[in-house]
Amino acid sequence: MPEPRPLEAVAGFAAHLRAHGFRVGVPEQQAMLQVALALDLDAHERLAACWRSLLCGGADEWRRYPELFRLYWYPQRLTGSTRLSGETRPRRDLRQLVADLQARVGGGPAGPGSGGEAGLNETARDDDHAQGGASRVEALDRRDFRDWGADERERLDQLVEDIARRLRNRLTRRRRIDISGTALDLRKTLRRSLRTGGMPFAPAWLKRRRERPRLFILVDVSRSMELYARLFLRVARVFAGILAARVFVFHTRLTEITDLLRRPSERNQEKIAAVTAAFGGGTRIAASLAEFVEHRARGALSRGSRVLIMSDGFDSDGPDQLARQLEAIRRRGAPIFWLHPSREPPQSTALAPCAGLVAAFLPAHDLASLTRVAAQVF
């Protein structure tokens, strides 16, 4: 595959960042060119840091930028099977890029009306991701899961893994009062000191809380969920590995697939496919929840549990049955979070009497909403 021309490479990097939620238009690309033209050839490695200060608009973008930079400019340094836009990209030589840019504009800075700006505007017009400095496609974070391409779905595991790891780190940072702790709880220490005239004779120490909520994930794999169920299963697989979640799938019956997800292999993938082979069958949410409460999670549900149901809420069981099963879960102290694949809460008849039994109905139709789910559930 031939190396892209320098302006095309810069425009491609800008499009790559836009696909991950960065706001990068033609003015930012012009500034990138000006920085590249101002550098000596031997200082080309400083481009990453210089561009970072130009292109990052917040702490989250600042944190994600180095990995995105490596993914685009140095894909050969990445391990595993990381892919970009469905194909492995060749290495892009930044030193050669700077040299080509300086040769193209005679070594001068890229100012208004220069060849660098004109070439960039032409490249931006041809770029499917840019027009007038604004992205013509939604950022990947906000693109509905049903609109993801096959290559983007392969990247979903990596993106969700990042969410799950941040969540795990946040959960394990929580602290509790413990005499063997090493961090001082200043507020509680001062409160205790009121009993001794302000002298802190009884300091309160904090110890990191290691236990995490027990997480149960139930994924609807019936016909009405066909567009989303496979993507939800990818999410569940990551949560099973990182957060020790137990994962179930249901349509007309309930089946646990936790062990199959934790030991990924071609054979286990075939077993999961066989379990979910009832795509196109009916949906018995109430009956599946009854099996979950009475047999699969019996004795495990408590106040320290979280139950995540991923479904559109369409149930073929009788009226009020779903409400009875949700109430059975709530009696055990576990809050229920209903993740639905739509922007608006589901309007199914079965869910109408269940509003007071569900802690929250949460949209999970794109990566951004999935990130918010993690914050709201925990």
Can you offer a commentary on this structure?
This protein is an alpha/beta fold. It has three domains: 6-137, no CATH class; 175-208, no CATH class; 214-377, Rossmann fold. Helices cover 45% and strands 10% of the residues. The chain contains 14 helices and nine strands. A six-stranded mixed beta sheet has the order 6-5-4-7-8-9, sandwiched between helices. It has a three-stranded antiparallel beta sheet with strand order 1-3-2, with no helix packed on it. The longest helix is centred in the middle third of the chain and has 24 residues, at 150-173.
Question: How is the secondary structure organized here?
Answer:
Blueprint (H helix, E strand, L loop, with lengths): L5 H13 L7 H13 L8 H9 L3 H15 L20 H11 L10 H12 L23 H24 L1 E3 L5 E2 L1 H8 L11 E4 L5 E7 L5 H17 L3 E5 L3 E3 L1 H5 L3 H10 L9 H12 L8 E6 L10 H11 L4 E5 L19 E4 L3 H11 L1
Parallel strand pairs: 4-5, 4-7, 7-8, 8-9
Antiparallel strand pairs: 1-3, 2-3, 5-6
Entry summary:
The protein is 45% helix and 10% strand. It has 378 residues and is an alpha/beta fold.
**Unreliable residue runs:** 79-91, 106-120, 122-138
Separation of the first and last Cα atoms: 46 Å
CATH class of the largest domain: Alpha Beta
* Structural classification: alpha/beta
The number of E-state strands comes to 9
CATH-assigned fold name of the largest domain? Rossmann fold
How confident overall, as mean pLDDT?
Answer: 77
Helix-strand sequence: HHHHHHHEEHEEHEEHHHEHEEH
Overall shape: it is flat
Please give the count of helices: 14
Rg estimate, integer Å: 26 Å
